[in-house]
Amino acid sequence: MERVFVLAFVLLLATVSADNPVRTPIRQGNKKVHVRRFAKIPNNASGRPSKLQSLTFRGDSLYVCTGTSGGLIYKVSMRGEVSLFFDVNRAMREAKGREMDFTSAHGGLRSVAFHPNFNRNGFLYTSLMERRKESPSKFRYFSRTSKLIRADSVLLEWKYSFKDKKVLSSSYREVLRVGMPVYDHPIKQLAFKGPFLYISHGDGSVQSAIAGGGQKDDALGKILRINPVRKGAQPYTVPRSNPFRNSAKYKNELWAVGFRNPHNICFSKRGELFVTDAGRDNVEEINIVKSGGNYGWSLREGPFVHKASGGLVNGVGPLPRDDAKYGYIYPNVIVGHEGNRGAGFVGQALAGSCPVENGSPLSGTFLYANFPSDGTLYYSLLSDMRRARTTGPPNSLTQAPTYKAKIYFDHDDNERTRPLVLNNLRDVIRREPGLGGAERADVRFGRGPGGEIYFTSKASGGVYLITSTKN
């Protein structure tokens, strides 16, 4: 059993070839990660690969959202057969004359979640960026800013007709709307736990900036929890067990605060919420999030004091000795950015998966990758993550070790031939026809019905199965 070790709160010396605020090295892991192609989502209207934003499952099928490539949801069978499930943008146009906003890479369709009682009520929910043509005064905002952009984060409810075998455009219902200070770090993924819907929302800041922050009484940089089903005149209700239900500081809907860009959320079998949060200039983090927790942004970045001036290494400092009095919760896993000291943006960010807990060869791990560039694949042991000490005096904080994974790619879908041994997920994606020069991996992870892990790529429009997570 690997031992969780204490993070040294020191900066790298200038004598090394590349600076990194995190001293703890990444280890080479001994887990074998086998990968194969699973499905190909159709190209977008311009003939380019669809930009796949998220993946979830219901029953024995996967559902893939195309993000800025038209706002479509595709259904993928366990045999890899692909069919269009729902044209969300078209349904918005038919129902209300509205459309998604695709003017930013952070726009379009973000995520879909099916109600636990979907087989009875037919409800599904989408998070997306909607173009706002009308005056903001015509809408009910959960939180807004003084300088609204021309697009809003929106949570919509839809109803699937089992008789007609389609989602009804007329069922469009707005559940929640959030105003944004800038067009970056908007609404993200959705996930149900029981009847309650968890909504991750970015802090509304651009790279290397802190426009929104995560400490204000709004949706920015927060995890929200609601019951999204309408009750009378109420578009949703707030669970009585929400931690800020009677708080004077935060809105009832908030479940945890202090995030920058919580890209990915996923539950373990124990009910723990794993959140992968993209950092600014210095630290990527993965948190096992607790109800009512404050995760520090923008006053903290990872287990460091965050300086508003930013910059690699220069933008963070050690925690004060009396830091425990502030009550922040620190990450279970961290990965430091690497580059030239003082750099404002080095293009590193983590995409996280889900806990693997199905008795497969990779059971007991959590996979994550550097998604903007080469897709370097990492993992940590769930046991180490759960033992990490995330509160208390600075010298008592610990994180789980990060291991770099070696990838074995079944390039011809033939178990008899030897797999290709590759360094990263971008090398997998580059083997798609016509993608030899792909600069970015742009991967996102999702879990299948058997607890297995898939990843998608915006660069290739492909869906890939990590076969060593399949039982």
From TrEMBL:
InterPro entries: 6-blade_b-propeller_TolB-like (IPR011042), Glc/Sorbosone_DH (IPR012938), Quinoprot_gluc/sorb_DH_b-prop (IPR011041). The keyword Signal applies. Keywords: Signal. It comes from the Eukaryota. Residues 80-299 form the Glucose/Sorbosone dehydrogenase domain. PANTHER family: ALDOSE SUGAR DEHYDROGENASE YLII, HEDGEHOG-INTERACTING PROTEIN. This is Glucose/Sorbosone dehydrogenase domain-containing protein. It comes from Chondrus crispus (Carrageen Irish moss). The lineage of its organism: Eukaryota, Rhodophyta, Florideophyceae, Rhodymeniophycidae, Gigartinales.
